[in-house]
User: What shape does this take?
Amino acid sequence: SDGRVSPAEAIEWFARQGHDFLAITDHNIVTPLPDGAPLTLIPGSEISAHRGDVDYHVVALGITKMPQTHDSDPQAIINAVNAAGGVAIIAHPYWHDHTLEDLRQLRDHVGIEIFNTSCWLEIQKGHSLVHWDLLLRRGHHAWGFATDDCHWRIPDYGKGWVMVRAPENTPEAILAALRAGHFYASMGPEIHDVALDGREVTVRCSPARSVYVTGGYNYCPNAVHAWDGKPLTEVTVQLHPRQTYFRVEVVDFEGRSAWTQPVWVEPAS
Ligand SMILES: [Zn+2]
Assistant: This one.
């Protein structure tokens, strides 16, 4: 492990916190996983890449050995991860100071890290929501991931994760759900349901201070706030006729967010 604790210690900690699965993604190696772990383990790596003088880290999940490429170009690495049956995610765009153009060049990854605990606590560049929205507004169907990326030198663990809807707790089912966008990202809040009826969106969630139904058009302040201090657990809003997609963000009273994946909708007639 390139973290301060061993893989076994990390596995034990996340299992105790109630996590159902964990991916170990040391840099540029696939760390062998122990048998008999108390949670589902997904093999992977975080692979360094660059194009010109722009660096990228590609998170590769579900690969059992390093992909067969000597090319350090990010697209070549994404392609090799896909060829190996893995899932490729672009790590922490804000930490890299990626521009929109840096990201728009890449294809066939499943999405980007929109929250990364380690990047947040180390240099306050953990949130890459701007990168996400800019990609979405330009038609990239990129899913948003929250991760710890913990190295255990500071308390950078247990603050960002994904909640997956999968028929079973196996690596294959979890990876399929990540590919399909059947998950949401969270720093704490739970999103129990998002129902779409026509252009009416109903969100059910753990007690929240604010619920946003944002995206696709910015003159539609579809936000509900608990100004009176009474926590929100169910919110219904109408999409603006010009919203072609939306995503839900739930914020709790500690300022922690959870983010659904974007949902594309038919234009209002
Ligand atoms: Zn990284």
About this structure: Residues 60 and 88 are 5 Å apart (CA to CA). The radius of gyration is 19 Å. The chain has two domains: 7-186, 191-264.
